[in-house]
C-alpha cells in the first residue's frame, strides 16, 4: 500500500495530467475486475487485451483514476512513450514502484533469483520470516518488469520483510529489477539451463544471475547454494556477509540424516555451526528440502533463532499453484502436478522425486516440451528421456507435437528386463485415454512441462476421469 496524489504520480512518471491532481491513490490494479476503492488502474496493452477498453469498468469498481498511454475519459495520467518494446504503462509502474521503495525505511528486501526453485524458495522464505515480523511475499511468479513493481506496490505500510522474486531473460534484466527493489539481502538458488537460448551459454546465465550479488552492498547479506559451484563462486563478487546452504558438508546451513516418509514429508537435522535441531517439512521433493535450507539461511541472516526457524519449517504450505501439488484420489492413486514450468534441472529433480516415493504401484512421468533451450534442445530432451528410464520410471509419456524432442516413438517400447514403457502421444485426449487405461491402484503420476504447454489442464482432465473411473467425483 502507498499514498500518493495523482499529481505526484504524474511528476514521478513524467506524464501529462488530465483531471484532478488532488485525487489520492493507495493501490494499483491491472485488472478492472479486481479493482478496489482508491486504486490507480493501469491500462496495459497486452497481446490479446487492451486495458484502455476497461477503464470505465475499473472506475465503476472503485478505482480513483487511471494510468494510460492513450487519452481516456475521467482523471488519468498519460504516460510518456516507451523507450523500448515494453508497454509504456509498465515503465510508468516501475517508476512509481522505485519511488515507493525509496520511501521505505527499516525493512529488509530479500531478492531471489536462480534458474529454478525461485518461487518455491520465495514462498518458504516468506513463511519463515512471517514468524519474525510482518512479511510480504505474494504467491505466484511475480518476477519480471511488471511483477516485481507490483510486489513493491502491494506491500503493507508496516512491512518488515519484503521478499521479491527476480527472473531474467538476458543480461541486465536483474540489474534493472535490483535498481527498483534495492535489495538488502540476495539469494541465488542455482545456475541451470533455463533461458540458455536467450543468453547463449551456462556461463552467460551465471553472469546474469550474479547481477543480484553485485547489487548487494557491503552491509548486506548474500545467501548462496553451496551445492552449485557456479553459485558458490559468486562469493568472490561481493563484500557483503555470505551465508551458504545446501547438502554439502561445507555449507554453513545444511541438513543431515534426511529421511522421506511414506506420506511425502521429510525429516532431517538442521545444522548451523555448532547448533543442531530436528526439523521437518510437509512437502515432497528433495529440492524442496534444499529450498527450505535457503529459507533457514535467510532466517538466520536476519537474526532469527534456529529453534524458531525449525518450528516455522514444520508449518510450510504450498503457496503457489502447480508446484509439486500432491492429489490423493480414490483407488489409491497419487497425482503430482508439477506443471507450472520445467527446465532440465527441475525436470531431473521431479523425476528423482517420483522414483523416490515408496509407491506400491507403477510410476508415470507425463512430460511436455521444455522451452528456451536453444540449439541444445533435442539433445537435452533425449537426456531426460534416458534419465527417466535409468531411474526406473515405469511409464514415460511425452505429450504434444513439440514433445517429439524426447525422441520417443508413437509405438510402445519396453526397456529390456524391466516393465518399462515409453510412448509419444500427439495431444491431451490421446494421452488421457492411454493413461486412464493403464493406471491401477497404487500408481503415482507426475505431470511436468514448460508453462506454455499448460500441462495443468491435462493433469486436471486425467484426475476428473480417474475419479469417475474409481467411482467418485
CATH superfamily of the largest domain: Mur-like, catalytic domain
Cα distance spanning the termini? 42 Å
CATH top level of the largest domain is: Alpha Beta
> In terms of structural class, how would the helical and strand content be classed?
alpha/beta
Query: Which segments are poorly predicted (pLDDT under 50) over 5 or more consecutive residues?
Result: 414-418
Gyration radius (Cα, Å) is 24 Å
CATH topology annotation of the largest domain: UDP-N-acetylmuramoyl-L-alanine:D-glutamate ligase
Percent in helix: 25-40%
Find the count of extended strands (DSSP E, 2+ residues): 23
Largest sheet: 9 strands, mixed
Number of helices: 15
Q: Overall mean pLDDT score?
A: 91
Neighbour order of strands in the largest sheet: 9-10-8-11-12-13-14-15-16
**Number of self-contained structural domains:** 3
Characterization of this structure:
The protein is α/β, with parallel strands linked by helices and 473 residues long. α4 (118-129) packs across α10 (286-301) and α12 (344-356) runs parallel beside α13 (377-391). Helices cover 34% and strands 22% of the residues. A 9-stranded mixed sheet has the order 9-10-8-11-12-13-14-15-16, with helices on both faces. The protein has helices spanning 6-13, 55-60, 88-103, 118-129, 147-153, 173-181, 196-199, 202-215, 229-232, 286-301, 306-314, 344-356, 377-391, 428-438, 455-469, and strands at 4-5, 16-18, 24-25, 27-29, 39-42, 65-68, 76-78, 108-113, 135-136, 161-165, 185-188, 221-225, 241-246, 253-260, 266-272, 275-281, 325-329, 333-337, 363-367, 395-399, 413-414, 421-425, 444-448. It has 3 domains: 4-86, Udp-n-acetylmuramoylalanyl-d-glutamate--2,6- Diaminopimelate Ligase, Chain: A, domain 1 (3-Layer(aba) Sandwich), CATH 3.40.1390.10; 104-314, Mur-like, catalytic domain (UDP-N-acetylmuramoyl-L-alanine:D-glutamate ligase), CATH 3.40.1190; 325-469, Mur ligase, C-terminal domain (Protein-Tyrosine Phosphatase, Chain A, Alpha-Beta Complex), CATH 3.90.190. It contains 15 helices and 23 strands. The relative contact order is 0.08.
Amino acid at each position: 500500500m502507498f499514498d500518493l496524489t495523482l499529481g505526484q504520480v504524474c511528476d514521478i512518471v513524467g506524464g501529462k495530467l488530465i483531471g484532478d491532481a488532488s485525487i489520492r491513490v493507495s493501490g494499483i490494479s491491472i485488472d478492472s475486475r479486481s479493482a478496489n476503492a482508491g486504486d490507480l488502474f493501469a491500462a496495459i496493452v497486452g497481446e490479446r487485451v487492451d486495458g484502455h477498453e476497461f477503464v470505465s469498468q475499473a472506475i465503476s469498481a472503485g478505482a480513483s483514476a487511471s494510468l494510460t498511454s492513450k487519452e481516456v475519459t475521467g482523471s488519468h495520467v498519460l504516460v510518456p512513450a516507451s523507450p523500448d518494446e515494453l508497454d509504456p504503462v509498465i515503465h510508468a509502474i516501475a517508476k512509481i514502484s522505485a519511488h515507493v521503495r525509496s520511501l521505505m525505511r527499516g525493512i529488509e528486501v530479500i531478492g531471489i533469483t536462480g534458474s529454478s526453485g525461485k518461487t518455491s524458495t520465495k514462498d518458504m522464505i516468506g513463511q519463515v520470516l512471517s514468524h519474525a515480523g510482518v512479511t510480504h511475499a505474494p504467491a505466484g511468479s511475480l518476477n519480471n518488469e511488471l511483477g516485481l513493481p507490483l510486489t513493491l506496490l502491494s506491500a503493507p505500510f508496516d512491512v518488515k520483510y519484503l521478499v521479491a522474486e527476480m527472473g531474467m531473460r538476458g543480461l541486465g534484466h536483474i540489474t534493472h529489477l535490483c535498481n527498483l527493489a534495492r535489495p538488502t539481502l540476495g539469494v541465488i538458488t542455482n545456475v541451470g539451463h533455463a533461458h540458455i537460448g536467450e543468453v547463449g551459454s551456462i556461463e552467460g546465465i551465471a553472469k546474469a544471475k550474479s547481477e543480484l550479488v553485485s547489487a548487494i552492498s557491503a552491509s548486506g547479506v548474500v545467501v548462496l547454494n553451496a551445492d552449485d559451484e557456479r553459485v558458490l563462486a559468486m562469493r568472490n563478487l561481493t563484500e557483503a556477509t555470505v551465508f551458504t546452504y545446501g547438502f554439502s558438508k561445507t555449507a554453513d546451513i545444511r541438513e543431515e540424516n534426511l529421511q522421506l516418509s511414506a506420506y511425502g514429508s521429510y525429516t532431517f537435522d538442521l545444522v548451523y555451526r555448532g547448533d543442531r535441531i530436528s526439523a521437518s517439512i510437509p512437502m515432497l521433493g528433495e529440492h524442496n528440502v534444499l529450498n527450505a535450507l535457503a529459507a533457514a539461511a535467510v532466517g538466520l541472516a536476519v537474526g532469527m533463532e534456529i529453534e524458531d526457524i525449525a518450528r516455522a519449517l514444520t508449518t510450510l504450505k504450498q503457496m503457489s499453484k502447480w508446484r509439486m501439488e500432491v492429489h490423493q484420489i480414490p483407488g489409491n492413486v497419487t497425482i503430482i502436478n508439477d506443471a507450472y514450468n520445467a527446465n532440465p534441472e527441475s525436470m531431473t529433480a521431479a523425476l528423482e522425486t517420483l522414483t523416490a516415493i515408496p509407491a506400491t504401484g507403477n510410476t508415470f512421468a507425463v512430460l511436455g516440451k521444455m522451452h528456451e533451450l536453444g540449439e541444445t534442445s533435442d539433445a537435452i530432451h533425449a537426456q531426460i528421456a534416458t534419465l527417466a528410464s535409468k531411474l526406473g520410471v515405469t511409464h514415460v509419456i511425452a505429450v504434444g507435437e513439440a514433445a517429439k524432442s524426447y525422441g520417443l516413438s508413437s509405438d510402445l517400447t519396453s526397456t529390456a528386463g524391466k516393465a518399462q514403457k515409453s510412448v509419444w502421444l500427439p495431444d491431451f485426449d490421446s494421452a488421457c485415454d492411454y493413461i486412464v487405461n493403464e493406471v491401477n491402484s497404487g500408481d503415482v503420476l507426475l505431470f511436468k512441462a514448460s508453462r506454455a504447454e499448460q500441462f495443468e489442464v491435462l493433469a486436471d482432465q486425467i484426475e476428473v476421469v480417474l475419479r469417475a473411473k474409481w467411482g467418485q467425483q
